[in-house]
Amino acid sequence: xxxxxxxxxxxxxxxxxxxxxxxxxxxxxxxxxxxxxxxxxxxxxxxxxxxxxxxxxxxxxxxxxxxxxxxxxxxxxxxxxxxxxxxxxxxxxxxxxxxxxxxxxxxxxxxxxxxxxxxxxxxxxxxxxxxxxxxxxxxxxxxxxxxxxxxxxxxxxxxxxxxxxxxxxxxxxxxxxxxxxxxxxxxxxxxxxxxxxxxxxxxxxxxxxxxxxxxxxxxxxxxxxxxxxxxxxxxxxxxxxxxxxxxxxxxxxxxxxxxxxxxxxxxxxxxxxxxxxxxxxxxxxxxxxxxxxxxxxxxxxxxxxxxxxxxxxxxxxxxxxxxxxxxxxxxxxxxxxxxxxxxxxxxxxxxxxxxxxxxxxxxxxxxxxxxxxxxxxxxxxxxxxxxxxxxxxxxxxxxxxxxxxxxxxxxxxxxxxxxxxxxxxxxxxxxxxxxxxxxxxxxxxxxxxxxxxxxxxxxxxxxxxxxxxxxxxxxxxxxxxxxxxxxxxxxxxxxxxxxxxxxxxxxxxxxxxxxxxxxxxxxxxxxxxxxxxxxxxxxxxxxxxxxxxxxxxxxxxxxxxxxxxxxxxxxxxxxxxxxxxxxxxxxxxxxxxxxxxxxxxxxxxxxxxxxxxxxxxxxxxxxxxxxxxxxxxxxxxxxxxxxxxxxxxxxxxxxxxxxxxxxxxxxxxxxxxxxxxxxxxxxxxxxxxxx
Length: 691
Known about the structure:
The chain is 52% helix and 4% strand. It is mainly α.
């Protein structure tokens, strides 16, 4: 190997100039050839030039990896090649996959131009990570600071050039933005004017709306310092546009509705209400003036004022119902004898104490007002009472009801006379309305309760756990589950069956969702099988009672085993109890057994413990009953017959027998009896040894 290196060094020393000249000429020839090829094929040289420059830069980066592997890590040459090659191969693979993903997700026009740019996917970030890591590793071995910057800048520059060349036609619109970017912070602090940037304009409007809503609640609640918050609210009110004001009022109303739903009975905050535009004034009444009734005519001819907003801040104003009054026959007779017409209309002398009626007819029969249609059925005069709002304390507030803005018909209508009176006239104006055919209105749908139709902005009230509508949906679900699952199906209700049943029933109760349906089915099956579960939803009353197991079935035997385990634990405490008390105490331990079976089993178990013959010996649970325990302790002969062989074997194998070993094997507590058994075993062992 050394001789080969010497040969290469000698060759380079003798022919270096010639090799460099040949390489330069070859490069010029290749460059000219590529230029001619690009001109004839009309293909740009930019991709080829970019690929060539990337390979040169990668060679520079690979040289740094080679130096680290040879000088720092002391690796053999073959492993050094693997070290620097793995980074470059991974980088080239990641960039190739990212470019392929970008071209595949791009939408192209028929002429080949990109209509909608694509996205390179996750490989973009992987390629950037590989470039950054390789640059940092190579720069860490540099000697000077300038070399460190050069080693770090080369891979980053390669990546940026590749990304810029790939996305030269455009990039897909970003799905998110930094919440605290320099531009957004500058606009927030007032250093930047939004101009035509829709994102900044929308952000400024949303922030102003949020600020006005918060400051309004602070002012309404009397938050200290109240003048400061009022001045802040006034500052925003000066520059707020109509859309911002509408959004503020809508948010305040929605917040109040949500608070009424979540915290009923809480102190309400006055919410402003935007009043609609005032309707057209009512038609004037043409009547002859009278010296004794100027105030009556003035009140009748005065236009109807727009409705005053209720001081309570509520959006709904209550209006008294419209009353229909039959016209007075004397007024009609007097109107028929009217001698003098004014402006084409007959004017009757003032001879009645009734207020002047206002004739109102709709110019278009198809657009008849509610007053006309209602009066057509009654054929009488329609008095319109004054509107009354309800304030916060429940006191009626005076208001005005706008008369329907239907135009006055040009035809002549007889008018009722206005009688002089010294008493103040009533504020009710009877309006004679001509009969208009009324088509039957379609039946209105059933009203939805306000708590169920309140748009909370997050989810409908029917999906709130515990609400009445939610409980109705759970009730329907429980009935459907009860039709699908019976106690005989419990052994077959595995995970697959439960999932299949949840997917089957979820579309029928879409307001609950598949997850809630699956949870209910699991808890329903557990409760039906006798397993008590702690539910996170308020549907305990919709879960079934445990199903009684069939005598002799596997579930019945398992329930008996659970009951016996609970009975042993209870009797192990040493507190004697009556069988009836034990049955009442241990009934929850076996929910799938009926009360009679529980009482009979416990009675037979207690009798078996006392050594008496239990009638349950003929029952299927006879094998579960304990062995009879005698009150008389076992004698020495009985113990030797049962445990003598074991004790003798222990003495023969160990050469000694202690009292504690005798007590442990036989289970007796008397030390005197244990000593007697020990001496008998030792004597028998000695006799056996001498024999």
